[in-house]
Amino acid sequence: MKRTVFATAVALSLSLVSVAATASSSGAFVRFEGARANYDIDSAQHDGKSARAFGVTAGYRWQLSKPLAFGIEAGYMNLGTVKDQFDGVLYKDNGSRQAVTIRSELGTRSFLFGPTVRWNMSPAWSLTGRLGIAHARTRVVDRIDAGGTSRSHRNTLVRNTAYAGVGVGYAVTSNIDLGLNVTHYSASGRGYSVNEDVNTNVVGASVEVRF
After folding, report:
1. Can you give the residue ranges of the Outer membrane protein beta-barrel domain (predicted)?
2. Whole-number Å distance between alpha carbons of 121 and 114
């Protein structure tokens, strides 16, 4: 998905480079993002796995100088769900063997709020920075199937954590940008029975519309 979105962004940029107007930085904006979330978790069960992510952010920027604008943003980010499955054998007290399957899912949803800055490097190109608080809700679901019976265990960690990101954008018109972004969501606090800390790195593409 990332390759397709990037190729589309490059094609649009090249086709519109001759008509791209000077990007306007001040005013209200809405940003839509599609990305890939890579999980960095204490537990090896989900560590290193990735999932599709998407979100929307809205805010307002004030022009501080000709190239620099400062703003506030709020939004929602779905960091996707990673899965794991273990197939093995259990030994009963009488020594007999029993097949067992353990399926596990972990997913995070975050509400975001914080400041953002935008620096216009040229009439068309810009850099953005983000730093704020993410109200994150991470849920773990484990299901054990053995001997024709199933048991499920659910656990949820709700926490306020930090997020920080950078991005580069290209103005296809004076109020529409295509961008590539990297955002890190830091773990804060523990809440699982296995004491997992959840960090997430998100890489993706975005469309920002300014009003």
Report:
1. 9-211
2. 23
Nearest to 182 by CA among 169, 191, 194, 173: 169
Kindly report whether the global pTM for this prediction surpasses the value 0.70.
yes
101 with 36: CB under 8 angstroms?
no
Contacting residues for 31 by C-beta, under 8 A, at least 6 apart: 56, 57, 58, 73, 75, 179, 206, 207, 208, 209
Tell me if residue 26 falls in helix, strand or coil: coil
Burial of 179 (0-12, 13-18, 19+ CB in 10 A): buried
Domain boundaries, the chain: 2-210
Residue 200: which H helix or E strand, with range? strand 198-210
- DSSP conformation class of 46: T
Concatenate the DSSP letters of all residues of 122-184 into one string. Answer: SSSEEEEEEEEEEEEEEEEEEEEEETTEEEEEEEEEEEEEEEEEEEEEEEEETTEEEEEEEEE
> Phi and psi dihedrals of 52, rounded to 5?
-70, 140
- 10-residue stretch averages of pLDDT, the chain, 211 residues long: 45 42 76 93 68 96 92 95 77 72 85 96 93 90 76 81 95 94 79 61 96 92
The pairing of strands 176-185 and 97-120 is unpaired
Contact predicate 26/175, CB 8 Å: no
The Cα angle at residue 173 between residues 61 and 27, in degrees rounded to 5: 15
The values of phi and psi at residue 121, to 5°, are: -75, -25
